[in-house]
Amino acid sequence: MATLSSERVPVPRDRDNDYTREAARARQEFLRERTGADLEHVSSYSFDPSSLTGNIEQFVGVAQVPIGLAGPLLVNGEHAQGEFYVPLATAEGTLVASYNRGMRLLHEAGGVTTTIMADHMQRAPAFLFASAREAREFGDWLGQHFDEIKAAAESTTRSGRLQEIERYSAGRILFTRFNYTTGDAAGQNLTGKATQAACRWIKDHHGDIEHYFLESNFATDKKSSQVNMLRTRGKRVIAEATIPNELFHRIMRSDSGLMYRARQVSNLGGFMSGVNNNGAHSANGITAMFIATGQDAANVAESSAAFVYAELRPNGDYYYSVTIPSLIVATYGGGTGLATQRECLEMLDCYGKDKVRKFTEIVAATVLCGELSLGSAIVAEEWVEAHDLYGRNRP
Amino acid sequence: MATLSSERVPVPRDRDNDYTREAARARQEFLRERTGADLEHVSSYSFDPSSLTGNIEQFVGVAQVPIGLAGPLLVNGEHAQGEFYVPLATAEGTLVASYNRGMRLLHEAGGVTTTIMADHMQRAPAFLFASAREAREFGDWLGQHFDEIKAAAESTTRSGRLQEIERYSAGRILFTRFNYTTGDAAGQNLTGKATQAACRWIKDHHGDIEHYFLESNFATDKKSSQVNMLRTRGKRVIAEATIPNELFHRIMRSDSGLMYRARQVSNLGGFMSGVNNNGAHSANGITAMFIATGQDAANVAESSAAFVYAELRPNGDYYYSVTIPSLIVATYGGGTGLATQRECLEMLDCYGKDKVRKFTEIVAATVLCGELSLGSAIVAEEWVEAHDLYGRNRP
Amino acid sequence: MATLSSERVPVPRDRDNDYTREAARARQEFLRERTGADLEHVSSYSFDPSSLTGNIEQFVGVAQVPIGLAGPLLVNGEHAQGEFYVPLATAEGTLVASYNRGMRLLHEAGGVTTTIMADHMQRAPAFLFASAREAREFGDWLGQHFDEIKAAAESTTRSGRLQEIERYSAGRILFTRFNYTTGDAAGQNLTGKATQAACRWIKDHHGDIEHYFLESNFATDKKSSQVNMLRTRGKRVIAEATIPNELFHRIMRSDSGLMYRARQVSNLGGFMSGVNNNGAHSANGITAMFIATGQDAANVAESSAAFVYAELRPNGDYYYSVTIPSLIVATYGGGTGLATQRECLEMLDCYGKDKVRKFTEIVAATVLCGELSLGSAIVAEEWVEAHDLYGRNRP
Amino acid sequence: MATLSSERVPVPRDRDNDYTREAARARQEFLRERTGADLEHVSSYSFDPSSLTGNIEQFVGVAQVPIGLAGPLLVNGEHAQGEFYVPLATAEGTLVASYNRGMRLLHEAGGVTTTIMADHMQRAPAFLFASAREAREFGDWLGQHFDEIKAAAESTTRSGRLQEIERYSAGRILFTRFNYTTGDAAGQNLTGKATQAACRWIKDHHGDIEHYFLESNFATDKKSSQVNMLRTRGKRVIAEATIPNELFHRIMRSDSGLMYRARQVSNLGGFMSGVNNNGAHSANGITAMFIATGQDAANVAESSAAFVYAELRPNGDYYYSVTIPSLIVATYGGGTGLATQRECLEMLDCYGKDKVRKFTEIVAATVLCGELSLGSAIVAEEWVEAHDLYGRNRP
Questions:
Q1: Residue D137: Cβ within 10 Å count
Q2: Cβ atoms of residues A365 and A73 within 8 Å
Q3: Which of A62, A82, B283, B331 could form a disulfide with B304 if both were Cys (CB 3.0 to 4.6 A apart)?
């Protein structure tokens, strides 16, 4: 309930240690008094709040998001190999069932092949000069001093490695993209620190910079952009499979020919609507996995972009691929170490070091299953009707 | 851990009643055996699983996502008026603190003005004809039979109302957008059913339709698109404020002039990068509120689009607005009635009927606070340096 | 040659009558003296410069752009029916031959079916208010006062008719699109005048407008935009045909199956590259017709957008359609009345009143021929190789 | 006039030599008989048709496009330095006058600074593999064999140099961009031939390629795309200037403050409309120069993209820049050697070898003048009114 008061009353905090059950309870009480809201469930959490340091401020309790289990998902990856049971945190009815059904289809089809094509996180500082000419010269200078800049950036991080500095000019500004590998972390923070250090070194060693901005909508953190769809932010990962039409008939009561026709229309619709994903609904599976496993779900903005490419083979087989150009995931840092989140990563054997590529592949494979499941459902009614019409369903 | 087996073992289900603690426990046990994962925390939930019917399948436990409390947020809306304490479910350190700081700034500036400009949810069936000419005639026919189509659509729903059918042609296909008001529900399901009914009526009454597709990437559910940024899916809501520079100095240790200069470069960067949001990070606040209050977080894909427009006034005041063209929210249905989710809506007095516009305004106001907080942080270092240089910070 | 002088010497003009051979000659002489350039050919023009009033300033001569003749083009339009010989002004070798070849293919296939789906030219004034709330109220007010606004707009024009005022909000600004039919003129000028008059009436009758801008990048004159691709600026016209594979084999030494496969990859490439046209090269034919017939070739920026949708039929027939969403053409006004330009329109029986829809259809049909011609060429080598391989080409 | 006949009558050609006045006359006669069109002016051309070999087929005469002269344009480029009189071929009244006025403004402001930031033309073959994994390996292989591929490509051309092969993956396809420098030619043809040769070499030496396509909408020839706006096709050139407000007042009867406010709204409008150019009308000047100087005007589709970035300085000075990311120009080859076209290049001392960068800078500088001229006109009425109001215009 809204309260109208002349005096602004901030949320209570314990200045000594705010990460305790008591501090949380004080805030629950504060809310109860001010809004009348009962927090019976929000206040039911099973972990010690001290584990939240660095993850949240003014902790008051938890959202309990139900997790459904889908699987087994069969993955033929380079890092993920074999069967997985996938935790999906969602409140959207049928979502888990739909992905589960797609996993069955792909399991019978021999599994999902996954390939990571690129992997880099970036910060994108913009540098301002007297004119474009100095900006261009600075661009060359960046190339000449790459090693020193790399050393400055990497002095701040153990796992981040500067790979490349891309350059895009406009007016008297040079926009750059500092591309890093970031180990098992998503890397937004470490690349931020590293790039800040790099920029300070640059500013100290190049006399012509009028000003620089650490970010200027060219890495587009938490936003979807064509530059990231082209050049990748996070992982660029592809999931593919070729599915015999017999499986569509038997498992999905669908048909590859009908699905392919629908795909053509979806490609056109997507092109005309200016969408960032010509597929069906990859955000559903990605978001549900992100919430379950402690990924930053705000990255769904970026990670929901996708390119679908499909082929109907002469024998009715359906080749289907989904390319996720900017999947931002971690198996270390961020929310991955929280109580339930870590358990969900552990069910996939994906918690901690050297696991992020495995996790990436599992996410991509899950997405593919969801695409084919929804794609099947869309044409199922028609297929059943056609089937009945031609009598093939008769006993 | 991946298991390699020749036989596909599906997730166990209780065919009589799968929404029980026992059924969940059976799945926990199944996972423990197969993957070795301990689900101590995932299995700690405070509600009766029977409440999850219609929200999830193969329930195994919960993700406990920590909630931080930000506020008070002062809103001068048409539906939300006064102060609110806002629950943000996230694991990204500093997010709550940053929004909280922005809320303080805007509180001292007199609050955030919010305005809902448009409100409609859509399904976008595509109709296929022999040629474009029949498609055009069908477009006219849709206009002539709007009342009957509306009746067919609305026969399936109590709260959905068909407002308009937009038409976009390409080749022998007419893409349409069926725009509905949907009461307090987000409305994807009800518009799906209503449009399915409408399409059946249409197919029965128009002889030339070769085929129709209920969706073809023209409503772009769970995806970001220019058509939705232009025409709105969900709510189009604007949050605005004018902030005296003195408040930036005092509260944020920042400066409106520096922020405005950074904004210009961000506008250019965003235009060149092809981003769907020229602002800073609206997805952060939106996602955290979505998870806390039982919204479908996959809609962050769409809801993360935004248009920022700012003005530096001659006296240093900073006018700042953020327009969210496709904010998809509900206060009824979906995950809003789940245990913790409902409590979080209740803290805002936003649970249930006739509350969705109020909730919409609170989300938009929260977003504005986050934009100004991050926008301030980006230039704070520079401002402090400039300040020190000119001696104004000296005691 | 560049001349370096301290004094700025403007181009000479005859203040009494600048549209004479003498005035042109004075400028030729001026150029010859200053740059050494010989203008033998530029100064060879066959018309009286007095005919150029209103079309150009500081006339010095002409560009002679060679015209090639392609055809016969067979059109099954609603306005264009029968065969046409199409003038293409270009210096790109093979362009005319390629379109000519496509015209032969489509002629044998029974011609090109053309359909105009929409027709409106717009100006897009933006109105600024104290806040979004007044902007929203103004939007409603526009609807209530449409008839008066229409009267004010149409008082300035004989052929322009205001159809609709679209509204798009952001911050405290309401962007509008004033959509007009404009008879046989392209209509940029008349809609400019009409909308200026409408805006003045609006400003006089609505007290809350802080300011208005006659244009603000929302009609995107001379630029390509998603809003125009969706909502149409100029004509939205579709050209379609279904071509038997036998014709591809015989005339183009190509194959529908190979072309369709290439189309799939082009669709994906176009989606990923963020292109405004998933087809091949419609700008080539459009530009060549525009220059020949006195259209404003700068409109190629907008008119080059296109949506291609194709289907491979089970029998190998190839359905192919191209949708031009913003084709800006005229048969009256602008450059259409100039000496050679009028002759070129007359060859198509498209000069003057009530001809613009006919001309629109001819342009669209020409574009389709060019798409199929280039699409064939791209796979021809492969087809020939495959053909040779399998011995079918042997005598 | 359309002719309806059962027999298709092709355009007459002289098989021995079709590039003669006689052959052209035969086609004129053919047209006259079939359409009744009189070609008095079209048939008035001043050059020998034999000069058209390689530029056009089925030549029938010329479009005489009037050229207006604007200038002097003062350029402070690296290749273009000093004053230029610019030929603009157009039939749009006021266009020449408007550019001329802008040139006067910029001349008094000290000229336009121009900088070429990047220069490459590309072909973009797509390679198809069994799966994404082979596509990725092929990408690495391309890097390892760059020197050999470069040699194969360059064996076909004297002036083209392969700089880089960019890679973008989706599904089982690797899209590439072969970037070349192309001397004074625009280079579409030479890069086509070179890339064809490179692809053949690649196909011969890499066993896994299932198929390749020489083009797949990833170089987007004759179309506007985000990838070209980011990565450049042709020249990336920037024109800049800083103009004292006194000059806006005196010459343009305009004001930098008003222009800057309008720019902000245009930036927002352009972002929301999804335009490829947030400026005013660069296509106007570019098209008029392209037609005059024998450039391929169909490239206006690509060359019309632009990024405008402006700053209002505290003293009222207006910094304004326009970045053209994909300006496709030549001073050699294509239509540049035709009779009038060559003369127009010669007026700028830009015909032939080693002139293309000079010409590029002149085009960019011209564009800037047009931007400021139209930008001034848009606010001029308001400025005059404000001026009158406050009495400053009184004698």
A1: 15
A2: yes
A3: B283
Residues constituting chain D: 395
Q: Model pTM?
A: 0.96
Query: What does DSSP say about strands A173-181 and C59-76: parallel, antiparallel, or unpaired?
Result: unpaired
**Chain B residues near residue D229 by CB distance under 8 angstroms:** 272, 274
Structure letter (DSSP) for residue C251: I
Interface test with B, best of C134, C273, C323 (most B CBs within 10 A): C323
Check whether the bond before D12 is cis (ω within 30° of 0).
no
What distances in angstroms separate CA A129 from CA A138, A170, D114, D311, D342, one per listed residue?
9, 11, 15, 13, 38
Q: Write a three-state SS string for B278-319.
A: CCCCHHHHHHHHHHHHCCCHHHHHHHCCEEEEEEECCCCCEE
One DSSP character per residue, D242-297 reads EE-HHHIIIIIS--HHHHHHHHHHHHHHHHHHTBSBSSS-HHHHHHHHHHHHT--G
Pairing state between β B318-327 and B307-312? antiparallel
* C317 is a catalytic site residue: no
Give B11's DSSP letter: P
What is the rounded average pLDDT of the residues B131-159? Answer: 97
pLDDT, one tens digit per residue, over A114-136 is 999 999 999 999 999 999 999 99
**Tokens standing for residue A71:** 């699987």
Q: List the Cα angle D73/D77/D79 in 5-degree steps.
A: 110
**Whether the Cβ atoms of residue B269 and residue B279 lie closer than 8 Å to each other:** no
pLDDT at A370 over 60: yes
d(CA D144, CA D152) in angstroms, rounded, equals: 15
CA C322: distance to chain centroid? 14
Place of tokens 């996502």: B65
Task: Give the SS3 label for residue B222.
Answer: coil
DSSP 3-state of C190: helix
Residue A21 token pair: 């059950």
User: In this structure, what DSSP letter does residue B248 have?
Assistant: I
Instruction: Enumerate the residues of chain B whose CB falls inside 8 A of the CB of residue D272.
Output: 229-230, 307
**Partner residue opposite B268 with nearest CB, options D272, D274, D309:** D309
- C-beta of residue C259 within 8 angstroms of C-beta of residue C248: yes
Rounded Cα distance between A31 and A43, Å, is 12
Mean pLDDT of A76-105: 98
User: Per the CB < 8 Å rule, is C96 touching D58?
Assistant: yes
- Nearest CA to C87 out of D222, D333, D30, D87 is that of D30
Taking the C-alpha atoms of residue A339 and residue B66, their distance in angstroms, rounded to an integer, is: 10
Residue D231, token pair as written in the block: 């990565």
Identify whether B79 is a catalytic site residue: no
How close B235 gets to chain D, by Cα (Å)? 16
Q: Write out chain D residues lying below 8 Å of A321, CB-based.
A: 132, 170-172
Q: Name the residue with higher pLDDT: D207 or A130.
A: A130
Residue A133 near residue D113 (C-beta atoms within 8 A): yes
C60, containing H or E segment: strand C59-76
- State both tokens at A288: 């549900």
d(CA A151, nearest CA chain B) in Å? 23
Q: Residue A357 has which token pair?
A: 């590529």
- The tens digit of pLDDT for each residue in C110-137 reads 999 999 999 999 999 999 999 999 999 9
ipTM for this prediction: 0.96
* pLDDT-based confidence at residue B382 (cuts at 50, 70, 90): confident
Do the Cβ atoms of D371 and D103 come closer than 8 Å? no
Whether residue D394 has pLDDT greater than 60: no
The two tokens of residue C142 are: 């526009």
Condensed to tens digits (0 to 9), the pLDDT of residues A26-74 reads: 999 999 999 999 999 999 999 999 999 999 999 999 999 999 999 999 9
> Where does chain D show beta strands of DSSP type E?
59-76, 81-89, 112-123, 126-128, 161-170, 173-181, 211-213, 234-243, 307-312, 318-327
